[in-house]
């Protein structure tokens, strides 16, 4: 691509190699190739999700399908009762996102604004808790859930992940609130606002972008969680999408089109979600690293 | 809420006595704030504290999950030391750290910097955003789904071997995940693909904090991309680099879903990792005590890694301020 664009902005005395000429196009081409490589598995999936088993066995994974075959998708859809799985995943991830953000905010308000005694240790504890391997919690949780009748319920997973996600949220928001402009708090207090009012009228509006990002992260993380749902949710009524797909792995019903169609349909919600919230995500989260 | 609202003690320039440290200001130390911490703390203790202690206790017992655990002291840990599978799983963790931390962080720095500083400023910003989205896409997938698709791609009759055939490299056809020699590298490649988007997105967000005038000024002074990368980009986003390296290292130590979906730890434990090993011991072999010991060791390693990371970060921050 030897397209040369000579539109240098004004007052650029120095010739940067990336300003004009070919090199920036080379950089663009390189990054684009990398991005395309990232997308290849999705292309494979699309190519084979609607290909009949006959097509697949004669033409292989790379051939163009000769017919638009939807039975693989239908098989999967009916076999796993996909709408129910979708609802389970959405219910769990949505509840955890909202509850996790609320709990994080309350914790962080006490730690970042309230500066309660020993807050550094408490924040450190939350941070460490977020890092724990889930295997270190799973057996007692599994046993306790069985004892109190929460085993194989969506509620058990919601409670567990609300706590796990809010451990991270608390750490993040506490460090953000540590630098909260004191003048705003002072002014609110002078106007006679109590703590509850300050939280919802002063702190919350200021944090809204960060909370939005946190909400999205919690939702996506929970949606994609696997180990705890795998252990806790054992039947078709309660399972989430990833667990349902994994439990069918190796099943004789899962031929190439069904596998790919199943994977594809399992990705659609995540991708839709991602596209909708690209903008929010783009605002970025600087993970509590700022002083 | 019947919390006695603090009346702001406005410094009305009265007697300039040395104020006691416990001034009751908004944002001061105040017992009432503990109420806000209460729900979170109760949940935390029930869902994380108690189970964690429980696992620690169970690691000192022999138990199948039914009846009462038998106390056996350090037996499980002694058995671990001589368990070849345990050591193999930790060796594989090092490979996971390479694939999930080292490579993605380095590539992520490079990509974020190029996307931000070259493509974002020389082409339309939407170009950079679209490219970033392509790299980030695998991050939003349920990792198990990604594992299942990759498992199918890497099968002997899968898309990857067909691709090799198509470009004339048919001699390289292989059962990538079924051969103990290639299974681990194959899993590593998948993990790089999964992880790369995270550092790219975090670093690009971090770069948006940086004052564009820094880059402008450097350019006017004739600094090329590499100079700008070293003199501006790297120092400016060092805090994020730390966070990314730490979170990815923890994720690598805990990796479970992809292993479950791709190989179930096989072939011959070539891709087994501590978390899958613990899961298998708990729920397939019903050796709760032994599984708890594996989990406890993994937990301790993670805590040590985290503390070391955070200590290094704190020291480097102090050094920066000392200058």
Give a written overview of the molecule.
The complex is a heterodimer of chains A (291) and B (323). Helices cover 70% and strands 0% of the residues of chain A. Chain A has 291 residues and is mainly alpha-helical. In chain A, helix 8 packs across helix 9. The N terminus and C terminus of chain A are likely disordered. Chain B is globular, with a radius of gyration of 26 Å. Chain B contains 14 helices and 2 strands. With 323 residues, chain B is mainly α. Chains A and B meet through helix 1, helix 4, helix 5, helix 6 and helix 7 of A and helix 1, helix 3, helix 4, helix 5 and helix 6 of B.
General form of chain A: globular
Structural class of chain B: mainly alpha
| Biggest protein-protein contact in the assembly | A-B, 112 and 115 residues
User: Proportion of β residues of chain A?
Assistant: under 5%
Query: Which stretches of chain B are poorly predicted, pLDDT < 50 over at least 5 residues?
Result: 1-24
- Termini gap of chain A: 44 Å
Oligomer: heterodimer
SSE arrangement of chain B, N to C: HEEHHHHHHHHHHHHH
What is the straight-line distance between the termini of chain B? 47 Å
Mean pLDDT rating of chain B: 87
Largest sheet of chain B at a glance?
2 strands, antiparallel
Rg of chain A: 25 Å
Largest sheet of chain A: none
Taken in chain order, the helices and strands of chain A follow as: HHHHHHHHHHHH
| Structural class category of chain A | mainly alpha
The order of strands across the largest sheet of chain B is 1-2
The number of E-state strands of chain B comes to 2
Question: How many E strands of chain A?
Answer: 0
The helix count of chain A comes to: 12
Low-confidence stretches of chain A at least 5 residues in length (pLDDT < 50)?
Answer: 1-18, 284-291
């Amino acid at each position: 691509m030897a397209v040369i664009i000579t539109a240098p902005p004004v007052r650029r005395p120095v010739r940067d190699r990336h300003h004009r000429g070919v090199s920036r196009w080379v950089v663009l081409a390189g990054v684009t190739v990398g991005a395309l490589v990232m997308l290849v598995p999705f292309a494979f999936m699309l190519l084979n999700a609607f290909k009949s088993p006959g097509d697949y066995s004669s033409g292989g994974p790379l051939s163009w399908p000769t017919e638009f075959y939807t039975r693989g998708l239908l098989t999967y859809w009916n076999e796993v009762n996909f709408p129910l799985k979708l609802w389970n995943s959405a219910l769990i991830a949505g509840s955890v996102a909202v509850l996790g953000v609320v709990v994080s905010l309350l914790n962080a308000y006490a730690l970042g604004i309230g500066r309660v005694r020993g807050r550094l240790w408490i924040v450190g504890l939350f941070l460490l808790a977020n890092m724990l391997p889930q295997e270190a919690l799973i057996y007692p949780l599994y046993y306790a859930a069985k004892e109190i009748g929460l085993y194989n319920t969506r509620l058990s997973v919601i409670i567990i992940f609300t706590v796990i996600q809010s451990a991270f949220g608390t750490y993040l928001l506490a460090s953000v609130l540590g630098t909260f402009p004191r003048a705003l708090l002072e002014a609110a207090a002078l106007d006679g606002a109590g703590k509850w009012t300050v939280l919802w009228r002063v702190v919350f509006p200021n944090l809204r972008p960060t909370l939005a990002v946190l909400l999205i992260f919690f939702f996506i993380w929970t949606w994609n969680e696997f180990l705890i749902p795998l252990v806790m949710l054992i039947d078709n009524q309660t399972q989430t999408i990833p667990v349902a797909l994994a439990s069918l792995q190796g099943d004789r019903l899962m031929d190439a089109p069904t596998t790919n169609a199943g994977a594809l349909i399992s990705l659609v919600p995540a991708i839709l979600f991602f596209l909708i919230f690209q903008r929010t995500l783009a605002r970025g989260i600087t993970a509590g690293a700022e002083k | 809420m019947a919390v006695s609202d603090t009346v702001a003690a406005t410094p009305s320039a009265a007697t300039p006595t040395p104020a006691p440290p416990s001034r009751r200001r908004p944002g001061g130390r105040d017992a009432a704030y503990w109420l806000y911490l209460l729900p979170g703390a109760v949940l935390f203790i029930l869902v994380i504290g108690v189970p964690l202690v429980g696992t620690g206790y169970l690691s000192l017992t022999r138990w199948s999950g039914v009846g009462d655990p038998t106390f056996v002291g350090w037996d499980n840990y002694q058995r671990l030391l001589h368990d070849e599978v345990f050591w193999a799983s930790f060796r594989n963790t090092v490979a996971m750290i390479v694939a999930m931390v080292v490579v993605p962080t380095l590539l992520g720095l490079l990509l974020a910097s190029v996307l931000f500083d070259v493509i974002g400023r020389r082409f339309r910003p939407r170009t950079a955003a679209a490219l970033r989205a392509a790299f980030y896409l695998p991050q939003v997938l349920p990792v198990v789904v990604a594992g299942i698709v990759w498992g199918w791609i890497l099968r002997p009759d899968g898309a990857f071997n067909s691709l090799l055939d198509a470009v004339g490299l048919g001699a390289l056809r292989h059962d990538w995940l079924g051969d103990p020699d290639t299974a681990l590298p194959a899993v590593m490649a998948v993990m790089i693909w999964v992880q790369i988007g995270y550092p790219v997105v975090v670093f690009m967000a971090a770069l948006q904090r940086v004052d564009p005038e820094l880059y402008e000024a450097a350019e006017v002074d004739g600094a090329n991309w590499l100079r700008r990368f070293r003199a501006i980009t790297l120092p400016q986003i060092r805090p994020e680099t730390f966070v990314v390296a730490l979170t990815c290292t923890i994720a690598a130590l805990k990796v479970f879903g992809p292993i479950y979906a791709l190989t179930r730890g096989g072939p011959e434990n070539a891709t087994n990792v501590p978390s899958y090993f613990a899961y298998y011991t708990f729920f397939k072999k019903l050796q709760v005590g032994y599984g708890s010991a594996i989990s406890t060791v993994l937990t301790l390693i993670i805590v040590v890694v985290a503390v070391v990371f955070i200590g290094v970060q704190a020291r480097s921050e102090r050094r920066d301020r000392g200058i």
